[in-house]
Amino acid sequence: MSAIGAYLERLPVRLAEMKLAISEAVSFPHLKDDDRSDLLDLWKGQARLQEMEAEIASPAVLRLLGVGVVMTPPPSPGLNTPSATPSAAKAASPPNAPHLGESEQGE
User: What is the Cα 68 distance to its own chain's centre?
Assistant: First the structure.
């Protein structure tokens, strides 16, 4: 019963918020272009639709959120990186595949 009482207590505030939102929406087409743009930006900000700069979460914060974090050292330079040389491209491709500068007939 206390939940129903709290709902009924907050109901007039919610209704007033709805009426304000409806009045803003009704007046929107009649606003000047600059005012319309400002109001739209305000609504997007309130709805969090505008792009926000993401903050990098620390491993401790991720762990608090239940995300498993495993710390690994960064890869050494040159490991697991494909080479840009044609000989490396030939070595990485299947034996019968055509290579750059060659036709399918093996010319």
Answer: 20
Query: What is this structure's pTM?
Result: 0.34
Closest CA to 39 of 21, 55, 17, 54: 21
CA-to-CA distance for 64 and 21, rounded, in angstroms? 37
Give the separation between CA 7 and CA 57, rounded to whole angstroms. Answer: 37
The answer to whether 86 and 101 are in contact (CB under 8 A) is yes
In the chain, the percentage of residues whose pLDDT exceeds 90 is 3
Tokens read off for 71: 């710390």
| Model pLDDT for residues 37-78, shown as the tens digit of each residue | 998 888 787 777 666 677 888 888 888 989 888 888 887 776
Q: State residue 92's pLDDT score.
A: 53
